[in-house]
Design a protein that fits this description.
heterodimer, A: about 450 residues, six-stranded antiparallel β-sheet, five-stranded antiparallel β-sheet, about 35% helix, B: about 425 residues, 3 domains, two-stranded antiparallel ribbon, 22 helices, about 5% strand, elongated
Amino acid sequence: MAERWDRARVLALAPDASSQRAAQSLTSSRAWAASGASPGAGTGPGTGAGPAALWGECRGSASAPYLTVIDLSGPAYRCSCPSRKFPCKHALALLLLWADGTVPEAAGEPPGWAASWLTARAVKAGAVTTARAGAGERDAPGAPKDQKTAARRAEQREVRVASGLTELDRWLCDQVRQGLAASQQAGYRHWDDIAARMIDAQASGLAERLRGLAAVPHSGPGWDGRLLEEYSLLRLLGVAYRGQAGLPGPLRETVRSRIGFSLRQADVLAGGEPVRDHWQVLGHRDVEQDRVRARRTWLRGRTTGRPALVLSFAPAGAGLDDSLTPGTGIDAALVFYPGAVPLRAIVQARHGAVGGSPPDGDSVTGFLAGYAAALAEDPWLDTWPAVLEVTPARSPGPAVCDAAGDAVPLHPEAGTCWTLLALSGGHPVTLAGEWTPRGLWPLTAWDEDGRAVPL
Amino acid sequence: MSAWQELVTASLIGTERAAVPAGPLPGSPGREGAPADPAALVLDRAALLTAARRGGRRPERAEPLAVAEPDTVPAVGRAARLRLARMLVGEHPDLLAEWLAAVAGRGRRVPAQSLPALLHQARRGSPADSELRRLVAAAGGPRARWLAELNPEWAFVLSYAPAGEDAWRLGDTARRRGYLSALRARDPDAARELVAASWDAAGPDERIMFLRAIARGLSLADEPLLDGALDDRHTWVRKAAADLLAALPGSALAQRMAARAADCLRLSGDTRGTRLLVSPPGGCDAAMRRDGITPVPGSGAAQPTARDHLLLEVIARTPLRTWTDRFGMTPAEILGVPAGSWSPTLFAGWSRAAVSQEDQAWMAALVGWILAGGLPGVASGAEALHQLVRRVDPRPDLLEPDANLLLMTLPAVREAMDVLRFRYQMLKELENDGTG
């Protein structure tokens, strides 16, 4: 099921540096009363190259040992310790021991406490698959009463969103009428208030964009232009929503999802055509907003060349989905959310890991042309994956420059990316990053031996 | 002014006071489709321009950076790379210096992507403790120098770059220190002569810098210079010189120390078996002070703690061969002779001597002895053990000592074993590097 991981991959799962240290201090075999690697519940022995699950009993400060179990396919973790970090140091330590080859392969079933959790997970995973298979039937007429209620609710929501958008439009026009100069003195409340009204109007996408704007007036020279850009695109969303009947279907989906009409994963999976490819994990960027951590993981299909964005969320302090490690590759089927530029995707099925060789880097003009083409379909598109063959340079701030002498700036908040500089030494490197209107946010670079280095 | 800039200015002032720029935009709806509200008109035009500006963005021109000199030295392998990453996130960071020295010593270099974290760590250390900086500069190669040219915070690397004599005559303290350290590594005699010629004109801080640079590759040829420094006007210069002479078992100072120590320790054999009879020095005379021993301040020489302290200071500076020669025993056998309540003091003294004289046989014996439970009350030996396990050759037999199981539960002992194992693996994987 799972090939043995190396320490770096394990340590990359840690929520912070102190967890890494704590886990390393638990990697002596003395700390572990018992441990084992098992084929896992529900699968017969000898199913693959390695184990599907790890389990162990770690001696802690409490009298009873902490019981730790890991499902390597997720990976998913469970531990009896009270830690709120995720994964906790015990799970990390167990993975480190496994990486070092000191967890014995157990031929049989794991002990009962581990087996019950693993079985429950396997059953749940099976249930999801079954639900997906049955999703088509559920939509068939069977419960007309529920359908009626649902239709009425949907109608109510459209009315609420429409009136919310009218209110937002008034607010946006007020800002421009009174002058944006005043917003430098305005506190966070200024944007939080209108964002809260958008929440009431069930337009959470708008609320999120508005809350993010509070920082713009303090983002340095050019803030006024950036604020105008955002306000104008927000008004454009309202205009597009009111005229949605005349929009092509995919663009309508884009408008609605940016306003906050979210699709359920099950519906996306049921409605979309899976795209199977060798997906290269280009890198990920974590952002925290309103006590929620979000991870944007960028993928690119080796055969299709398609970009994909996988989002995962977790409460602040908890671990994010780390099943997609930058620099690796997976053979998987992805289902894309509908939209004018289908970008966001769900991993529908994994068929195994494939070699993580460096992706092919583009030239700056080639990349910008690709972004422009995407933007022509979706004018709100403000993050886009870039893979470039470039050399670090100055323009005059940190920038990257390709062989033709064409350069793009790095995002000012990314600072001087010293790791990128060190890796390149003034020579071209393959660099993956997230393109934004303010510049490129560097995520991953590949060294001369083709190894991915997170930046 | 561009159409966009006109829109930004109008929105900044507000359409209450400013007119909407008249400029027609290609692609904007005609007069009949435009909103009546000037603010809405500004926003609509801004949206159109935003998409056009983002999509039509042209590449910039950039100033290329200088290209780093190629480094022909191969980078360390995968295992060492992972170990470095562990040390940089806080696992045994104090062993970084040894790791770097081993990397440079085996003709390898640090992987480029780890240099920023290493340089950051080296910069955080005090400038006086220049060893880590020198090692980072050495194991970082031309890439580290290239980075230092870009980041003034890392300029210390440049002071270790091969430099002409100008660096010595005209450079600041860091450059002079770098020049001298490099010269000492290349040509110890030339470095000593340079120090001797510059000594009289140097202030106390610089003299201490000289002595630190000389400390590497110490030999008896350095003795006259160090001997002269024993009568320096400044306490810390005198102390530094005395410490270096004590680390040189052939020096006159070490011989004087051996004579003092001979009076302190005698082997006695009678019906009750062999024992060490201890009589610590009665006081600290001027000659002892000149040789670097300082009495415990503020306490009378007759007090037990003061006598204990003097014994420790003498033993710590006495050539270890004094004991093996005089008693005709191996270090382990000497440690096995009962010494009653003096045991902790003797252990501490011998440990300091073994570390400063870099005596592997004694270090191994001392570590083995304490792990076997030789020292009652390990707490008193914890500091010595901490030093020893960081300098002793981590031989496999030390990793599996004939250890007292109860001892293994003590944090200091567990930490010591952990350090030994870590160093053993660290050096072994560097040795295997390139072969697999």
